[in-house]
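Practice set, problem 2.
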Amino acid sequence: MDQEVGSLLERARKQNHRPRRRDDTTPHTKNLDWVTVETERVEIEDPREAGPVHVGYTFWRRLGFDEILAKVGFNQKTRTLSCAMVLNRLVCPRSEHAMPEWIRRTALDDILSVEFKTLTGTALYRNLDRLHPERERIESALCERERTLFNLDQTIYLYDLTSTYFEGQALANPKAKHGYSRDKRPDCKQVVVGLVVNRDGFPQAHEVFEGNRADRTTLTAMLDLLDTRVGLKAGQTVVVERGMAFDDNLAELKSRKLHYVVASRQSERDTWLAEFEDLCGFEEVLRLPSPRNPFQKKSQIKVKLKRREEGTYVLCISSERKEKDRAIREKQEARLQAALKKLEARVKQGRLVKPTKIGEAIGRLKERYPRVARYYEITPDTQTKECTWTVDQEKHHTAEQLDGSYLLKTDRTDLSAEDIWHIYSLLTRAEEAFRSMKSPLAERPIFHQLERRVETHIFLCVLAYHLLVAIEKTLRDKGVHTSWGTVRDLLKTHQVATIALPADRGAVLRIRKGTVPEPEHKKLYTLLDVPERLIRPKKIWTQSPSQIVTKKISTN
């Protein structure tokens, strides 16, 4: 039990044993230092989870969110609602309709000193609309604040894309379209989200594209946006996936005097088969286990550097990827052969007769299984009603040799093969950001139907990720590699509650304050430089059921 409550009960016990003076006619209820308490009726009331939102709000202030929102013209109410909505995304994501109830189940009203009893989902929807036109200014100011606060490196930018699907038809959103679904939901409309992070994982810029937008067509738009948000400088390096490794995109990066590191497309990789077969010159990359899992066994990576007039290439072979690649290729090959047998039966039974229709069916198979279909020769014969196929053994052998290999390309000449590989591997920071936004921050599925609200919903997830990565960065700088999910779960037991102390003559003294943090809470608060005290304690003295007087306790 809290020290203050224990001290108060001890005084009450002494008071019960102290003889009352004859002239002592003043009710004890008028003296807050000496109160007669019926200890058997002491109760704990209105407990609220506080630890996770306390940490989130501390970092909200540390990153200067309130000042940033004030500079774009938001009043105190809008700033408070925005804070509550971002903290909800960080701690326990809910829809705008369900969010008010979640807020009332936490200690947010105690921490923010705001009354949320009458808050409705409608007010939160309106707040989304207020945030929408100011997204660029907010994101730009936030990046500048984080750069100063954490002394972040701005020499490398990592750009990747993902898709996020909708529940519903999203008829009012022109960006909602069917496209390649990274969520394995091709049945749903989606939008494509582009995100740039720096090497520490802090978001620098994001954009929402149409759901059928091709990856390669987004780079110019994202570079323009990044230049507006953070200001691109000559000599910086942009890292992108092979989906954007086309000559026009590389030329665009060069025209802006930017360097690049990309994974080359499969067709370019195939031209290096002889080099991959010659194992001479490959060096093993030193890979340390993850600090979160010191017993982790890393896969073996071998790299070889080759310089050409058009750029520097790094040939990479991954032991883990080799097994995975082989399994994927063999699985696709088995599916292709099963599909070819069905096609053969359709032709033989006369259900597919016209050469054009047979050709279309073959084309669809090649499109569905491009990786393995390229070394299959499929020959239909309408005269004999046969459809046969053969395997080009030379191409098949080439495919086997390339299992687990990939090719990196850069225009930088000052880096070793291992350096280039490590820079490219930083793309996992962008992938990690997407995983965090989709899972713990619940970016998907999207239920909003209006374009502006969809974009602001994603923007809230990005803002929450700013808090998440700032928390994890603070721990990481102190040698602690604990995820936000673990921190959140550990702090759930730190609460704010009211201690009800029944006194004589029907009065009740209620003390509203945070519980004493447990040792694991104190350790996390120390590492994060977060104060242990959740709120300023309050005394609520009830003289009668109809009268409540509230007083703040002095903390001096």
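Problem 2, part (b): a different protein.
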Amino acid sequence: MWRQSQTIKALRVGLAALYATRSLGVRMRALRVAMATACIMFSFEAAKQALHHDISIWTSHAFTILFTSLLAGASSFALLSKEKQFRCEQAASNKRHRLLFERSLSGVYQTTLDGHIRECNDAFCQILGYRSHEELLEQSAGDIYFSVGDRTNFTDSLQLEKSVTNFEHCLRRKDGSAVWVLENATLLPSEDGTGQVIEGTFIDISERKRSEEMLQNSENKYRALFEESADANWLMDEKGFVACNSAALQMFGYPPGALMLHPADISPPNQPDGTPSRVAAEQKMASAFLNGKERFEWLHQRKNGNVFPAEVCLTALTLSGQPKLLATVRDMTDRKVAEERVQFLAYYDALTGLPNRTLLKDRLSKALASARRQKDNVALLFLDLDRFKIINDSLGHSLGDLLLQGVADRLRGCAREQDTVARLGGDEFLIVLTSVEDIADVAVAAERLMDAMTTEFAIEGHFLSISCSLGISIFPEHGVDGETLIKNADAAMYDAKERGRNNFQFFTEDMNTQAVERLTLENSLRRALEKRELFLVYQPQVDVVTGTITGLEALLRWQHPELGLVAPDKFIRIAENSGLIVPIGEWVIRTACGQAQKWQEEGLPAVSVAVNVSAVQFRQEGFCGLIRRVLQETGLAPRCLELELTESLLLANADVTFSVLQELKAMGLTLAIDDFGTGYSSFSYLRQFRVSKIKIDRSFIRDVAVNPDDAAITAAIISMAKNLNLKVIAEGVEDEAQMSFLRAHQCDEIQGYYFSKPLTVDKVADKLRLNSADNAFSANHRADSSAQELLR
């Protein structure tokens, strides 16, 4: 019994230590200490009785109680020390967690299931637009949702899954605006045992959502443009086609859903340069991915096997985070046909199909070079029809054109394969005979040509007899260059005319009066600038739609003290060949710019002044510096100066030309191509040299209303210029029929006697004032008419 009593006392001491603690962990440790104390006391009591059985019970109890008390005290002290340390550590841990809670960039919260917000941090308030915790804690969690259903769906998901991860939804800020959040939440039992609580975090993803929406809108817009575009469009990746629009299917003749995997599948085996289409396509695709864009011409093939030229533009873009290429394909068949037509008409006469003056010069140059090497003779036969004007005027231009075509056919039939038969214009033809061994052979050829002309022509029921006059010059006896030979043959032809027509004459020195005249003009021209015999006149350039004067072309004139007014075509070439064009050209530019600035200072409308630039002048070192100095000295704005250049000038030494043009464009000048259509007429160089305007040569405008070929050339030039965003001006417009044609084909500007002849300085001022007043009146009249129409 005493032993049970001692055990109970030990348990009481242990329990007292147990209940002295508050923490569950400490109580468990106290329980273990109490049990250990009881065991030690029981063992101590048993050992004491065994060793000292003569000790009285009360003495034994006293020793046991004293020992147990000391042991329990020591144990309690140790437990209290550990409890204090535990509480300190717990307080520090709580402080750290509170700092993390408050300073977290994510919104952290705890709410009850019914929506009571129990706790939240600063980020939670800021994201929802509240100033303080207190302001937000007064709200219900349902207040931050746009509808009760949104909150219900969220809590239902939590109760079902116990937690949600990366849950995206839209909450309502204090000001009513929406904020998208990415939320993680867990459903837990509350610490006080009163129910369940929701603990979670969220971050603001509104910016990401806006970016995603913008990206989606952009992709939708792109998709709409892609599908509805009139051009054939493909979407491509590194391997080939991904998708195409209906225009692509229609262009290539494939049904919807047809399999087109690679550009090589819709191309001939090889491209024009011999490169396999698959290899060339992959090279272009790689270049587009690398550089962002690639534009090129390509041969494509339709499903039916037809091969056609196309312009392809590959543009790199990113869709849904993946690199792609947008391929836009345009059928160039019509454009190529038009370009080939223009190219043909640049070298061949539109009426007869014979080589024109441009091609003649090229072939003659080659023939003379070959003759120099072979020490051969070359004969030029200048042929002019006798009294052709009478037939043309009496029977009409249409029948006259048919007669010229018949003449061309007969001349072509009389010439050898290596000879050249060219039409110079009107009723003038030139025949170049190569490898001439005997001059007598040339006379025989001339007689054969004249005999061919004497046979009647049967044209639309008319039987026409016509003769011709021939002038002949021989290389190298009568000249060593093409220009001299043509000039001398022309002089000989006029001698044949004077000798009664229907004969041929060889050139002689007695016919060389033109050469003497040229020398006289050159000597006079050297003094003309000093003596102020040169002056400028200005021909207005007019907007076709409004009739407003948009510019003035400065034209050089020479008032010779003895010869009177010398035509420009007589002295301009002399100036170029002698080098006088350089000082004369500088004087023209300086005078034109100074006069244009003076008109502006007088209050007249600011219009541009166009100046023709000679090839000799353009190639002079320091030409750009000259232009810059003239603009600075005269004060004229660069945009008011337009330089007119010829096609041959641009294509000679293209690298140097390109650098000069770039510098001129950088100044702000306008660049125009003069006499377009008479040279190479290549539209590729227009893109390369970045000109702003082209002038259609007067030779096409002269018969544009009556000659289908001239009309076709002019319409093609205007159309292709518009496609290249170039302005078009037609020169030599003289009647209403020409004006109507140009207006119908949307030519931008005209220049010619139809509106105004070239004017002197004082008359230009009057013309500008009158034009300005007329336009103001027209504008007011249109405004009054509109107002009256509204009143009705």
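Answer key, part (b): The CA atoms of residues 404 and 426 lie 9 Å apart. Residues 57-103 form the longest helix (47 residues).
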